[in-house]
Amino acid sequence: MTTCVPRLCLYVLGVTMMLGLVAHCDFNQSHFGAYLHGDIVIGILASIHSKVKDLHDRIRPEMYTCTDFDQIPFVSSLAAIHTVEEINNSGFLPGIKLGYLMCDPCAYGTKALDCVERMLAVNGPPTVHSDYSNFTSPIKAFLGERYSELSIPVAKLLSLYMIPQISCTSTAPALSDKLRYASFFRVVPSDMYQTQALAKLLRHYSWNWVGVVTIDDEYGRAVLENFVQDAQEEHVCLQFQEVLPNYLGFIHMEEKIKMVADRIESSNATVILLILRPELVQMLFTQMIKRNISRVWIASDAWSTTGFIMKMKDINKVGDVFGFTFITGEIPGFKGYLQNLRPSPGARNDFISEYKQMWSNCTQSQQSENSFLLDCNSYLLQNVDLTEAYGQRVAVYAIGHAIKTLLKCDSISCSGDTNILPWKLISILREIHFTLDNQTYFFNKNGDFENGYDLIMWKKDGDERVPDVVGKFLISNKDVDVYEHKISWFNNMVPESRCSKRCPPGTHKHILNITCCYTCISCSAGDYSDQEDQSTCTKCLNGTSRPASTKCEKWKLGILEWSAAHSIVVIIGTVIGILLLVVSIIFFIKYRDHEIVKKNFSLLCIMQVGLIVSFGSVIAFLGDPSSHQCMVQQAMYGLGFTLSVSCILVIAFSSFLEFMSYDPHRQLYLSKFNKPFVNIGILTVVQGLICLFWFIFDPLKVDEKPSVKDPLTMNHLCTQGAEFIGFAMMHIYIAILAVLCFVLAFKGREKDTESIVFSMLFHLFAWLCFIPLFVTQIEQRPIIQLSAIMVSTYGVIFCHFTPKWYRILSENAARRANSPQVDSSAEEELQQQINM
Asked: Cα angle vertex 168, ends 47, 279, to 5°?
């Protein structure tokens, strides 16, 4: 484990030396790892560290602490720096000095955005504008990132400002979309071509039965998606697809690796495609070596030339390894640069210091500085394939040529202003053709290179492996050319990777294409297979089955059974509600002369009868429904509750008329409509007509729906009609009456109207809560509706009648308590009259 992001301290003295470009810079030591002043500055994003410490425990926007120094991107960053210095020393841009500012995203997308944000904020944070065409960024172009998972968010951000970004290894196909990533370029092909090359290689050796292990990020998902399509075209089947997390610090990574190793071990596919980061391949190969498992491994470009994997202990036990790598070359003078590794004059590079401090033999206590530099850097030469970094050279020169064109440079000078607008480089990069090391390069319309790939095979070299080019894939002809004479197989014979194993009962053969073998697919619910190797599953005619069944079973009836626990609760609740209403009617008859009852005695009784009918509708929901029972459910509730609400509305209207005494003329006019029983009849008849038209023109019926939760259960459910119009109209009509009751009662402002206000609010709130459940939970609709009916009905009882019961009983109790005192006073008065 290494320390956090290397410390880089640019104090006041250093800042003042950076001329006007960095006059306002604030280089926090944890943000930038390397810097060189220049007239034009290039931003470098390089994940020198592969992990972020304690990322799972991160709960606030604090500084990132990175670990696990990665030599491959370290060398790549040095290749970019070396190329910048080469351009500066060669006079390629006369009078112009290129600089660089480097930040370590630590293989984490959010930190990559943090790096870009801080780079763009060197001269002050960028402000929001309606037009960024005059935005002068301190960084004129960006190099990186290595991983597509990081390049994608960075490309989205830089496309806002139209600052060019060139990656050397991010190959996700999505990055070719210029609508989303307008300023992104790469000096490698899109993975859509790599997957074609992989599929062509498999077809070449008739490997049509393979396994795939991919990484869970944009790169892995895109490669897998394209590979599946290309494999189908080449008649190649995938036995399995496994996915590993992209974050190396994932706490359960070891368990995931073991699960993938188990899957590979149990598979009869001898060819495995690994679309992974090198570190994950190393972990997987460690498991393979422990288990003594040998396979033919197909490497994606992400790890096909990774030196530390080739030097793993017992690497020869894993089997043959093929892979594709980008067509690259030697970087002139780069080996000598590494052998004398130190920052150039005026530059800072804390990554170099950190690298030297990693090794115990790289100390100043050795005989001389040159000797410890040689010992330290020879490790890089021996363990990292330097040709992997060639893309950095091409990318830097692409930017250099674009700058040279924009500044109108000749062999003597550059006439343009170095404070260039970054977006002007984009149009040049899209059109540029340049030659480097006797090779011509250019970007296609998608900002990609279309050169091709080298096919490599890992050859034995003692206890290690070395890559050897054994073929090519050129995008121009879209076919792989294998140099068979250069290939020596692990077991001296070409391995086969074909299928198939027999499909057990409960499954059937699934043919992927005409030339490929089959996989075993479980029979779906409702189908079965009772023999091995059946081509299809048989449909259950008199019953159904669970998934992967070997026989059919009879349907279970999905209804609200009378004996079920929730049905018993419903029945008890209904009986209690009806008894309460019956007792209430008797109670009101007994106290019909009380002022609370006397005023609306008939209406209160009718109201409670309506609630009894509403309660009765709940019972109709139980048992196996029929079409007539479905209509009874809705009609009883609709008419019963409408009758009750109509009575409440009439009472509320009467209270409102009394409130209107301040306006006699209006009160007289409205009193013409105060005909309680006529109004109740009309309002209830309207609901009856709604139900009648509903049942005639959109009849209710019983629908059979298989249960989602239990495939053996067939639910019998009442439909509410094909269009739900009648069902909606019935409830909307009741809701309108309830709202009118509420408004009139609220306007009436009498003490007796409080019960109306609260009972109607309770009803409306109950249905507002139940309607979303009713719409979404289809299987539970009967229990949901009857629950809503009971809740709203009980709401009327407790909000409307309970206050009346309490008031009558309390007043009666008070009257009784005062009665003896009244009689005693009368006797005393009578006695006084007698005495007189």
From this structure: 45
| CA distance linking residue 399 with residue 169, whole number of Å | 16
Q: Copy the structure tokens of residue 163.
A: 């600052």
Residues 93-134: pLDDT tens digits? 999 999 999 999 998 989 999 999 989 887 666 666 666 677
DSSP class per residue in 328-393: ----TTHHHHHHT--PPTTEEEHHHHHHHHHSTT-STTSS-HHHHHHHHHHHHHHHS-GGGGHHHH
pLDDT the model gives residue 284: 95
In the chain, where the domains are located: 12-188+386-442, 191-300+306-329+452-486, 565-817
Length of the chain, please? 836
Q: Helix 565-590 to helix 601-619 angle, to the nearest 10 degrees? A: 170
Distances (CA, A) of 352 to 51, 71, 342, 406, 556: 18, 11, 7, 33, 72
- The pLDDT value given to residue 700: 86
CA 665 to each of CA 653, 669, 750: distance values in angstroms, whole numbers, following the listed order: 16, 6, 21
- Cβ–Cβ < 8 Å for 77, 42: no
How far, in Å, CA of 508 to CA of 506, rounded? 7
Residues in contact with 113: Cβ distance below 8 Å, sequence separation at least 6, in sequence order: 153, 154, 157
Measured CA to CA, the distance from residue 83 to residue 80 in angstroms comes to 5
Asked if 468 and 320 touch (Cβ cutoff 8 Å), the reply is no
By the 10 Å C-beta count (0-12 exposed, 13-18 middle, 19+ buried), 411 is classed as: exposed
Pick from 77-86, 124-133, 165-174, 592-601 the range whose average pLDDT is largest. 77-86
- Same CATH topology for 12-188+386-442 and 191-300+306-329+452-486: the answer is yes
Q: Give me 241's structure tokens.
A: 């697809």
d(CA 639, CA 687): 6
Q: How many CB atoms lie within 10 A of CB 735?
A: 16
Closest residue by Cα to residue 600 from 659, 577, 591: 591
Q: Distance from first CA to last CA of the chain, Å, rounded? A: 117
Nearest alpha-carbon partner for 781 in 596, 634, 593, 571: 634
8 A C-beta contact, residue 80 and residue 47: no
375 vs 636: which has the higher pLDDT:
636
- Going from the C-alpha of 380 to that of each of 222, 291, 315, 377, 444, the distances in angstroms are 32, 31, 20, 5, 34
The strand pairing partners of 143, in sequence order, are: 44, 166
pLDDT at 10 over 60: no
**Of the CATH numbers 1.10.530.10, 1.10.10.10, 3.30.950.10, 1.20.1070.10, which one belongs to the domain with range 565-817?**
1.20.1070.10
- At the fourth CATH level, the homologous superfamily of domain 191-300+306-329+452-486 is Response regulator (3.40.50.2300)
Q: Which residues contact 665 (CB under 8 A, 6 or more apart)?
A: none
Q: Which fold has domain 12-188+386-442?
A: Rossmann fold (3.40.50)
pLDDT > 90? residue 496? no
SS3 content of the chain, % helix, strand, coil (to 5): 50, 15, 35
- pTM for this model (two decimals): 0.55
Question: Which among 634, 593, 607 is positioned nearest to 733, based on CA atoms?
Answer: 634
Fill in the amino acid letter for 493.
Answer: M
- Please check whether residue 100 is in contact with residue 36, taking contact to mean a CB–CB distance below 8 angstroms: yes
The C-alpha atoms of residue 587 and residue 300 are separated, in whole angstroms, by 85
For residues 351 and 150, give the distance between their C-alpha atoms in angstroms, rounded to a whole number: 20
- Six-digit token string for 671: 């009193």
The whole-angstrom separation of Cα 408 and Cα 413 is 9
Element (H, E) at 35: strand 32-36
Phi, psi of 580 (to 5 degrees): -60, -40
Helix, strand, or coil here: 41?
strand
CA distances (Å), 818 to each of 539, 677, 754, 813, 823, in order? 82, 39, 28, 9, 9
